[in-house]
């Protein structure tokens, strides 16, 4: 086993500690529930704003309104 300089070993440990701290911080940010919810919300908004999806939602809304009106009239 090669003899290593204690100062070099300490420097290597410090570098490894900084890399580990950076990795832990990145993982904590990725696992943040608020950030995950914001990402999902943004993806849903982009999806819903697509013309085909928006038209489908509008059509579904129209059908629901017609069904509710018919239900009220038939009472």
What would the keywords be for this entry?
75 residues, single chain, mainly alpha, membrane, 3 helices, rod-shaped, 2 domains, transmembrane helix
In short:
With 75 residues, this protein is mostly helical.
Shape by Cα distribution: rod-shaped
* SSE class: mainly alpha
Give the strand content. Answer: under 5%
Quick check: average pLDDT? 91
Q: Bin the helical content.
A: over 70%
H/E order of the elements?
A: HHH
Query: What is the number of strand segments?
Result: 0
Rg, Å, rounded? 28 Å
Low-confidence stretches: none
DSSP summary: helix tally: 3
Described by its quaternary structure, the protein is: single chain
Biggest β-sheet, characterized?
Answer: none
Number of domains: 2
Q: Roughly how many Å apart are the termini?
A: 91 Å
Describe the 3D structure:
The chain has 75 residues and is mostly helical. The protein folds into two domains: 1-31; 40-75. It is 85% helix and 0% strand. The protein has three helices and no strands. The protein has helices at residues 6-30, 33-48, 51-73. The protein starts with 5 loop residues before the first helix and ends with a helix. The model has no long low-confidence stretch (mean pLDDT 91). InterPro entries: DUF3618 (IPR022062). It comes from Mycolicibacterium hodleri. This is DUF3618 domain-containing protein. Keywords: Membrane, Transmembrane, Transmembrane helix. The chain crosses the membrane at residues 52-72.
């Amino acid at each position: 086993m090669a003899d290593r300089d204690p100062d070099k070993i300490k420097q290597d440990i410090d570098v490894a500690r900084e890399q580990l701290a950076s990795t832990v911080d990145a993982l904590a940010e990725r696992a943040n529930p608020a950030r995950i919810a914001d990402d999902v919300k943004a993806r849903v908004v982009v999806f819903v704003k697509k013309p085909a999806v928006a038209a489908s939602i509008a059509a579904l809304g129209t059908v629901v309104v017609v069904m509710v009106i018919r239900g009220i009239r038939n009472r």
